[in-house]
Design brief:
Blueprint: E1 2-8, E2 12-20, E3 27-31, E4 36-38, E5 44-46, E6 51-58, E7 61-69, E8 74-79, E9 94-96, H1 98-108, H2 112-119, E10 122-124, E11 138-143, E12 148-154, E13 157-162, E14 167-168, H3 174-180, H4 220-232, H5 240-252, E15 270-278, E16 283-288, E17 295-298, H6 301-304, E18 310-312
Parallel strand pairs: 9-10
Antiparallel strand pairs: 1-2, 1-14, 2-15, 3-6, 3-18, 4-5, 6-7, 7-8, 8-11, 11-12, 12-13, 15-16, 16-17
Length: 324
């Protein structure tokens, strides 16, 4: 369970909520330029572009959940259980494991159209990082502030979809979410009008009644509709502070409260963290379930040109500003 959003005001913004029932050792990580990545199916590459995002670091390898590179290209992997399908390496294709996909895209490409030209050659493989770390079932959203794509590999192969909403959640496959929007075309941010019957004198008795029917549950299809409605009707000033605040308010609308979503093993899924990157300026903001104050990490010239990863521990303790 997760929700990803791309938004544009004066700058481009990209981020997501991470909704899971465990922690994966996540830290904010900056991967520098010219950082080497050995590919499990053979070959290697060095990053042209630095990137920042949330990752677990294993043996010097940043396992990114989401990240943004210095050119403003962003990418996130979201849970896609039961639908994701990975294949054996195929000669002549760009064979990538799911955990290699984000570094490969963000390390090599500057925009959506540039990466799209190369995606047809990609084959996502079923090679795990290690025997104790099985391959994650994912699909991905890629955005550069102007355009967004969704990439899914299923039984029928690799599929690339234009995403005019700039929103992604989880199952089902992305074409369902696009079609499902039609079921909510009567929702409005405007005051409700009486379309029920001209024979009845009906009137709104409170604000917000134009959006009656907006789903409030936490199912992926419902979060997709709710995030789209909030984003598409968002009114925001274009300065950075206003944009960041608005972005987190949109994510708050799909945040999972501990105890409201229980899994089959009685564990609780919750929003462990939410993040927003100013992709234009290279600043990564986040808050965690236990600390609602924003913390930020900048991509600086020093860490863009470093010879190693720059790793920042998450600020988990609740920060409070006392006024007296």
């Amino acid at each position: 369970m997760c929700t990803c959003i791309a938004m544009k005001t004066q700058d481009a913004y990209f981020g997501r909520s991470m909704d899971i029932d465990y922690r994966f050792g996540e830290k904010v990580v900056v991967t520098p330029r010219s950082y080497p990545f050995a590919l499990r199916s053979g070959g290697s590459f060095e990053t042209w572009y630095a990137m920042v995002g949330m990752a677990a670091v294993q043996e010097g390898y940043p396992l990114y959940a989401e990240a943004t590179n210095e050119k403003g290209l962003s990418m996130a992997g979201l849970n896609f259980p039961g639908n994701a399908r990975y294949f054996k390496p195929v000669p002549g294709r760009t064979n990538l494991t799911p955990y290699e996909f984000i570094p490969w895209v963000l390390g090599n490409f500057a925009g959506v159209q540039e990466v799209r030209r190369e995606l047809d050659r990609v084959n996502l493989t079923d090679v795990p990082f290690s025997p104790s770390m099985p391959v994650a079932e994912l699909h991905w959203m890629i955005s550069d502030g102007e355009n967004s794509l969704v990439v899914e590999q299923t039984d029928t192969g690799l599929h690339i979809y234009d995403n005019p909403t700039g929103v992604l959640t989880n199952n089902p496959e992305f074409p369902f979410h696009q079609m499902n929007l039609n079921n909510y075309m009567n929702l409005s941010c405007q005051p409700a009008e009486n379309r029920f019957s001209s024979q009845l004198k009906l009137a709104s008795y409170g604000a917000g009644m134009g959006s009656i029917g907006l789903p409030g549950d936490d199912a992926p299809s419902s979060r997709f509709i709710r995030a789209c409605f909030c984003k598409m009707n968002s009114q925001c000033q274009t300065d950075d502070a206003s944009s960041i605040a608005q972005f987190f308010h949109i994510l708050d609308a799909v945040s999972i409260v501990r105890g409201t979503v229980k899994l089959s093993d009685k564990k609780c899924s919750l929003t462990t963290y939410a993040c927003c990157t100013n992709a234009t300026r290279g600043v990564y903001y986040y808050k965690s379930y236990s600390n609602s104050q924003l913390t930020a990490v900048r991509m600086t010239d020093d860490n863009k040109n470093a010879d190693r990863l720059s790793v920042y521990e998450m600020e988990e303790a609740q920060a409070v500003r006392y006024l007296n």
